[in-house]
Amino acid sequence: MEASKLKYFQAVAHIGHMTKAASKLNISQPALSKAIHHLEEELEIKLFNREGREIQLNEFGEILLEHVDRAFIEIKEGERIIKDLAGLEKGYISVAATFPHVFPLLMGEYLKSYPNVQIKQIQSSSTQMKLLIKNDKIDFGISTFPIIEEGIEWIPLADDEIFLTVPVDHPFSNRKSISLKETENERFIGLVEGYGFRDITDKFCREAGIEPNNLIEVEDSGAILKLVEMGYGISFTPRLSMLSEHPGIIAIPISFPNCKRTIGVAYKKKHYFSKASENFLHYIIDYFKNYSAEKS
């Protein structure tokens, strides 16, 4: 069974359209159709249900795709291990984070020490992160929600206080602290449902006995403080997000309920880690240890 045929099969299976898959693979559509046909002949079984040029996997195709995906991941990992052991690359790290807007601060000191390391960072929910870790798509997941799964290690790094943030001209701006109950008539700006931080803040509101008026919901967490500065509402903001300056807002400690989140790092126990990845894990543990010491 040729690897090229399996690669073609994988592309068609994921895209679900013969012509589009051929374009992505940079081959002609007839050549791709012929390769898929030969693969099915070799296996002596049909892998797709066809409707014109749109095709869908049948149950046999689903089984094969699962194993083909896994095989190509293992091949890629093998190449990575060999290159790392042979010293053919400076290092590569892949990280998913639930709070990407603070990632530049997190990476600043690390890149000073390891300027040639290649880093890939993606934004992900905790649920998506778990799948990425299990499937060896990333080295680490830095999350504000515990990732608990057999075969995955979760290391709590720091507790992070969550503030109420308001514009400088807001009636609450002179307060030393505030109970969430007092905000029940305020307009909130926050993340859309499905993000771990949204789940956490919704839980705090329920504890306070209020239903927040989520006037504006966004997917880009970095936009929230900008909207607060512009006077469109108030928001929940973790201390970690306040490390950079925001002169147009005031951060108010919340007296009730106790509003904190736990930041942690997760990784697959049997995942191969390059030397760069191992250094990065030690770095982020030390980074958050210093972060905890500074706020105490």
Features:
alpha/beta; Arc Repressor Mutant, subunit A; D-Maltodextrin-Binding Protein, domain 2; 3 domains; 7-stranded mixed sheet
Structural description of this entry:
The chain is of the alpha/beta class and 296 residues long. It folds into three domains: 79 residues, Arc Repressor Mutant, subunit A (Orthogonal Bundle), CATH 1.10.10; 107 residues, 3-Layer(aba) Sandwich (D-Maltodextrin-Binding Protein, domain 2); 104 residues, D-Maltodextrin-Binding Protein, domain 2. 43% of the residues lie in helices and 25% in strands. It is built from nine helices and 13 strands. Strands 3, 4, 5, 6, 10, 11 and 13 form a seven-stranded mixed β-sheet that branches. Strands 1-2 form a two-stranded antiparallel sheet. A two-stranded parallel sheet has the order 7-12. A hairpin with a 2-residue loop joins β1 and β2. The N and C termini lie far apart (61 Å). GO terms for molecular function: DNA binding; DNA-binding transcription factor activity. This is LysR family transcriptional regulator. One of its GO terms (cellular component) is cytosol. Keywords: DNA-binding, Transcription, Transcription regulation.
